[in-house]
Design a protein that fits this description.
- The protein contains 12 helices and 7 strands.
- It has about 325 residues and is of the alpha/beta class.
- Helix 1 runs antiparallel to helix 2.
- The two termini are about 35 Å apart.
């Protein structure tokens, strides 16, 4: 919402509130400076106002400090960067190299009837936003992006905003017939995106995921009073228990005896002292269920097992129960 309000005040020329919501937007997400840089660039070309140059400068400094100084030196580093750095191995073909990515573009543009192509210049921030998910970073991350990535929230603003500018620019579009046209394509996109009201018409809605039966079997073998750590899509199914915590993807440094044969290994962290870990690694789950790229999730489990932090107790297809033999850190 900070980003949308920033765009509104920038568009109407109210400098002070625009600058205020620019600063607030920067605090909402680590990549917001990158997106705002390109939004301000568009307005710089449209209006020639110096405020846009100032915002671009601050955004550029913010991005540089965060991604090239803070992350590499004061945290575990930027987890998803390429082996030779964040800007290594850039290949623009990765914008469209998977069916999922192509679906993102198609459904994004069909949602407002392709009117954004009347002024492609306004789409620069949209392409920049998707680019830093689809192109920047290591191969596991860029290849994992699909329709249900979290960038859809930002992308919706970066598509609606150009559409408003285009309707404002082309006065002939301000008719009830054009409103019906937009509504028609929005309804199509809603259906294609599996909005809740269209679930009943989808074959996949009536098909039980393969991992579900495995999870049900695994839960039966958990001791009734066990203190359990698990992934987010399993937690609701054991919510009747008093002691449940969620596992989160992390990385751990090893000075010696590294289970992955590298100084830093994929790992997990959690709160408290659970005695059992239950997971399901079925291929139908994604980053929304693992809170990680699937390959990293599997690597984290393997590393913790090699390190004897966890020990396999039971296995049911893609579901596993581990005993937690020591704290992850």
């Amino acid at each position: 919402s900070f980003l949308a309000i920033f765009i509104y005040y920038l568009d109407v020329g109210k400098i002070k509130p625009a600058f205020l919501f620019f600063l607030l937007a920067l605090t909402s997400k680590e990549d917001m400076g990158f997106i705002i840089f390109f939004i301000s660039f568009v307005y710089l070309i449209l209006t020639r106002k110096r405020i846009n140059l100032l915002i671009m400068l601050i955004s550029a400094v913010y991005i540089f400090v965060l991604f090239f100084i803070y992350y590499p030196n004061f945290t575990w580093g930027y987890t998803y960067s390429g082996d030779s750095g964040l800007l290594s191995g850039i290949d623009l073909r990765e914008f469209f190299d998977t069916p999922e990515k192509r679906d993102v573009f198609f459904i994004s543009f069909i949602s407002n009837g392709f009117i954004n192509f009347l002024s492609p210049f306004y789409l620069i921030p949209f392409f920049a936003d998707l680019g830093h998910y689809f192109v920047l970073g290591n191969e596991r991350v860029t290849s994992a992006q699909g329709l249900f990535g979290h960038y859809r929230i930002t992308s919706s603003i970066l598509l609606v905003w150009p559409a408003i500018l285009i309707i404002k620019k082309y006065k002939k579009l301000n008719t009830k017939y054009f409103a019906i046209y937009i509504f028609f394509f929005a309804a199509i996109a809603t259906y294609m995106l599996h909005a809740p009201l269209t679930y009943l018409s989808k074959n996949w809605f009536w098909t039980k995921p393969s991992g579900v039966e495995n999870i049900k079997q695994a839960i039966e073998y958990l001791p009734k009073d066990a203190y359990v750590v698990t992934q987010v899509n399993i937690a609701p199914h054991i919510s009747n228990r008093k002691l449940i915590v969620t596992m989160f993807k992390d990385r751990k440094e090893f000075s010696k005896n590294s289970p992955c044969k590298r100084p830093v290994c994929e790992w997990f962290k959690w709160a408290g002292e659970p005695k059992y870990l239950i997971v399901d690694t079925a291929p139908e789950w994604n980053i929304l269920h693992f809170l990680a790229v699937r390959e990293d999730f599997l690597a984290g489990l393997s590393n913790m097992e090699k390190d004897r932090t966890i020990k396999k107790y039971k296995e049911f297809g893609t579901s596993r129960i581990y005993t937690v033999d020591k704290k992850p850190y």
